[in-house]
Design brief:
With about 325 residues, this protein is mostly helical. Helices cover about 75% and strands about 0% of the residues.
Amino acid sequence: MMQQTRRNPAAHAVASHRGSRAVVSALSNLRGLFQRTGAAAKLRLNSAILRKTATTDMGDDADTDDGFNAYAFRMVKIFLVVTVIPFLFCLKNFFTNPALSDFNFEYGPHLAAPLLRATSSFQAVMVALALFWREKNRDAPCDRLFAWLFVPEAIFHVLLHFLNHHNWIGNFAFGYAFSAGIALPGFLSLMAYCPKEKKLPWMYMILYIATQIPICCGLTDMVGPAKIRLNFANVNTATITGPFFYGIMKRWKDVPKLPVLLACGVITYQVTMGIIGPINAATALKLYDPSVVFQHAVVDVGFAFAYAGSIYYGLFLPGKPQPKFS
């Protein structure tokens, strides 16, 4: 072997050179690996520092926002169960003899009017379009939940116009739309505007059960006079939404004004027409009279814009502090 090396010194030099190049290449690759690893570690460290700094600067905002969202979702689930309780006290209203009811003579033709079917469908479309926009622009979880809470009223409002109320689904749709349907979004707004008043949602739920047991009985009563059902619906719209204005006034500077003013205007018109409108005038018009149907249609269209505006604007004006619950 030594003789071969001595006989061929050029080959020995080439082998040594190749070995040196391999060692240098390995060292260079190892150095690059350490540099890349160090840079990645440094980047991770910097990211961690930035996250910690951001969390420190914001205080507990992220935690409290997540806490409020979890609290709001939990309370809304409880309230959804509560909204069904009043109907358990009037189950007999869903199994009445149609021969004892005047529904098919007056209130049935009123609700089945093509104009009202069109306006209820328009309201549902407006809610659906606003909800689509909100889902496309996913921002605050509380605003998304607020938007979805308009869906039950939109669905049941369509059903009550397209189904005969001797069908228990149609009767339930009428009762739910005029009770829980208009209360669900307001319940969330009450928590969002008064997050520190922890007893307030529970007090509202107690008040809801106490008031809605007799009102839901009246709304779903198929044997009593049809106008009584309509009066229950008109009065309940104002009664059930009243407590929500407490929260709205507390955060008035932070609340979108347009949907609130629209809702107030529509509710005022509905209640006023229910008290001094054509059905209670000296002429005592029938519910299927075109003027009475038109009055109902105006309310439907007004609520369509109020609901869509509420979903579009959300609970707070841009840049205003979001609710915190601790």
